[in-house]
Amino acid sequence: MQSSLLSVTQNDQRLNYRRRQAVNQVMLGLCGVAALIAILPLAWILLYVVQRGYGSLNLDFFTQLPTPVGVAGGGVFNAIVGSAMVVGLACLMAIPVSLIAAFYVYERPNTLLGTLIRFSTDVLSGVPSIIMGIFAYTVIVLTQGHFSALSGGFALAIIMTPIALRTTEEMLKLVPKTLREGSLALGAADWRTLLQVMLPAAISGVITGIMLGVARVAGEAAPMLFTAFGNPFFSAALDQPIATLPHQVYVYAISPYKDWQDKAWATALVLIALVLSLEVVARGVTSWQQRKLRGR
Amino acid sequence: MFSNKTASALVTIVALALMIVACGTPAAQTAAPVVQTVVVKETAAPVVQTAVVVQTAVPQIVTTTPGPQGPAAGSLAINGAGATFPFPLYSRWFYDYAFVDPSVKFNYQSIGSGGGIAQITAETVDFGASDAILNNDQYSKAPGIQMFPTVAGAVVPAYNLLGDDGKPITAILNLPSAAIADIFLAKITKWNAPVLQQANPEVKLPNKDIVVVHRSDGSGTTYIFTDYLSKISPEWKDKVGNATSVKWPTGLGGKGNEGVSGLVAQNDGAIGYVELAYAVTNKLPYAVPQNKAGKYIDPGKGPEGVQSAMNDFSTDLGDKLAVSIVNAPGEGSYPIAGYTYLLLYMDQQDCLKARKLVTFMNWALTDGTKDATDLQYVPLPDNVKKLVLDKAAKISCQGKPL
User: Fold this and answer.
1) How far apart are CA B256 and CA B282, in angstroms?
2) Same domain, residue pair B13 and B149
3) Which tens digits make up the pLDDT trace of B37-49?
4) Would residue B53 count as lying in a domain?
5) pLDDT in tens, A99-130
6) Where exactly are the structural domains of chain A?
7) Spatial contact of B352 and B76, defined as CB atoms under 8 Å apart
8) What is d(CA A192, CA A65) in angstroms, rounded to the nearest whole number?
């Protein structure tokens, strides 16, 4: 009697264990499927853009200027340079501001100014990018009387600032408090602690945040319409209209002509490849730096 | 933080791997684009010929222009914006003109007729461009503005219709003027309506609903089309009117010519108005509206129909050099046509730019007409051209003649 009872409970336990194992397997499988679904759009977009754009890519596409409809060949050299310039300008304007503001918010989170900065960046990051374009148009283009690379960089800087600011702040928060306390205890000043202890510890996250911002603004076409304006010729002047890759995609894509539509795909491919490689390089640099830091 | 990083690193690796895979097997995956490029070359064949002449004539300049040092010293940039309708032609003109006069670069951005008018009024560009004629309100905001016709073009009702045999109908359909306004007013809703079937005895029209497609954005093409409908239908004029965007009684809206033709291509039984160049390059079948004299003139056969419409009104251009040429009375006139205009201030601030602009206009209306014909635009008749160039010669700079 006793032994049979024991065997029944054992059997029960075994069944229970098998059931739990099965549930575990199913759930794990579902997680995998969900992860695949999450990656699918990215893979799909990349494959599709590569498939449509690959055929129009050649060396000339990177070194030549755009040609009008019906003239074979041509490239987007001016737009590559233009995008680099406008995004570079945006970085120059946005990164110092957002880093310093992030330091402030991190150091003084509960002051009036700190709350205000955090609140306004949250609001700012929700504002559609075309509004930034119109703002830059009103503030810079209308007052200067001409479209310019500068106004494009300004519009992108406003889009980039909240992203870089909030990521930097979050990354600083993740640095262990003890590190900061240790530095202060050794007699380092606040600024020194921030720049030489906190920032190096958080640098990879900060750079990721900046890269996210760069990736986001590098693909913006809407704010470019009324700021950088576009230019079929080569220009590297700050006060002149300049071509950018996303704007060039837009110009090509809405055209009625097949060869321009093909060039739109190729331009999109160049844009994606540039942003991706920039991201990979930045990640490589930060992981190399971190290894160096740990090695010391 | 760590798991976040790992996840994003994984995503990047997957993305890169996908790209490498995709690039590694170009034969299989680029098969379709390769075929498409061949098609492009065929359609662009007549256009390419002229381009070759330009390129062989000045090969050194072609290779030196994209140099990293930027525009040559003393190179002048003239910026303009506006209508999308003439954009292919203008981009061609400015590209070719950079070889004619390397000291000046014209940058034209197609932001729409409304945008062109707004930007020249705000003086953020050196010239504007519009298909729509400025109204009194717009003139009063920028009093010194002058319109200069450059070329004309035709707007056609493109359609997509499967016949009863299941095959698409590709004939150039006749569209009686009594029917066209009624279709866009939703009073004729079937393709086999008697008025349509009688006008097209050779084609058996199916018993299908007509799907009207129109522009959702403000557009010079809409301006020309509703101008025509207002001239032939008092009911349209009362109920809807004529503007760059109107309140459509029926139909689907598409953004830009590409949006309209996309909707037409997707919907069996659809009809929507697009520029002729658009219908021809995309091989969309179109219907021909009946002109005032009761004739059907196919604008795809040659420039004569639009030329005739311009000639019908060539003495009516007035001081602003702007006139509507829809519903022209001539026997051989195509009825839905319009000029496209450059917008310039008669008194310019920058004398060098003013001189270059006038020189360019002279070039565009003489040597540039070849480009226009290649791209399905219709050059100005001689008397209109003379009016335009005479007016351009009167452009002054800071109150003094150039």
Assistant:
1) 14
2) yes
3) 333 333 333 333 3
4) no
5) 999 999 998 989 999 999 999 999 999 999 99
6) 2-56, 59-295
7) yes
8) 48
Q: Do residue B301 and residue B203 come from a single domain?
A: yes
DSSP of B19-43 = HHHHHH-HHHHTHHHHHHHHHHHHH
Binary contact (B81, A259; C-beta < 8 A): no
B191 with B233, same domain? yes
Q: What is the CATH number of the domain that holds B81?
A: 3.40.190.10
Half-sphere CA count of B368, side-chain side, radius 13 A: 26
**Claim to verify: residue B353 and residue B217 sit in the same structural domain:** no
Cβ proximity of A264 and A256 under 8 Å: no
Q: Does domain A59-295 have CATH number 2.120.10.30?
A: no
Q: Does B168 have pLDDT greater than 50?
A: yes
Closest-approach residue (CA) in chain B for A255: B258
Instruction: Report, as ranges of residue numbers, the positions in chain A whose pLDDT lies below 70.
Output: 1-8, 256, 293, 295-296
Sheet holding B400-401, edge to edge: B347-348, B396-397, B400-401
Say what the pTM is: 0.76
Q: What is the pLDDT of residues A32-86, one digit of tens each?
A: 999 999 999 989 999 999 999 998 899 999 999 998 877 888 899 999 999 999 9
The residue assigned the tokens 């569209």 is: B175
Give yes or no for residue B375 having a pLDDT over 90. no
Domain boundary at B277, B312, B347, which?
B312
With H, G, I as helix, E, B as strand and everything else as coil, classify residue B330: coil
Nearest to A259 among B5, B9, B40 (CB): B40
Backbone φ and ψ for B142, nearest 5 degrees, come out as -140, 80
The residue in chain B having the minimum alpha-carbon distance to the alpha carbon of residue A251 is B110
Residues of B within 8 A of A268 (CB-CB) are none
Q: Which domain holds residue B229?
A: 155-312
Same domain for B92 and B218: no
Please write the tens of the pLDDT for every residue from B383-402.
999 999 999 999 999 988 88
Of B270, B297, B312, the domain-final residue: B312
E strand map for B135-233: 145-160, 173-175, 211-215
The pLDDT of residue A37 is 95
3-state secondary structure of A146: coil
What's the sign of the alpha-carbon dihedral A139, A141, A144, A150?
positive
Q: Is B159 found in the same domain as B149?
A: no
Residues B307 and B203 in one domain: yes
Residue B73 in tokens:
């010293």
- Does a structural domain hold residue B325? no
Residue B105: inside a domain:
yes
Structural domain count, chain B = 2
Residues of A in Cβ contact (< 8 Å) with B40: 258-259, 262
**Same domain, yes or no: B256 and B348:** no
Q: Which of A142, A145, A234 has its CB closest to that of B65? A: A234
Range B343-381 burial, b when 16+ CB lie within 10 A, else e: bbbeebeeeebbebbbbbbbebbeebbebbebbbbbbbe
How far is residue B130's CA from residue A23's CA, in Å, rounded to a whole number? 67
In whole angstroms, give the CA distance from residue B261 to residue B274: 7
Helix (H) or strand (E) holding B378: strand B378-379
Give A43's contacts in chain B (Cβ within 8 Å).
14-15, 18
Contact B360, B106 (CB under 8 A): yes
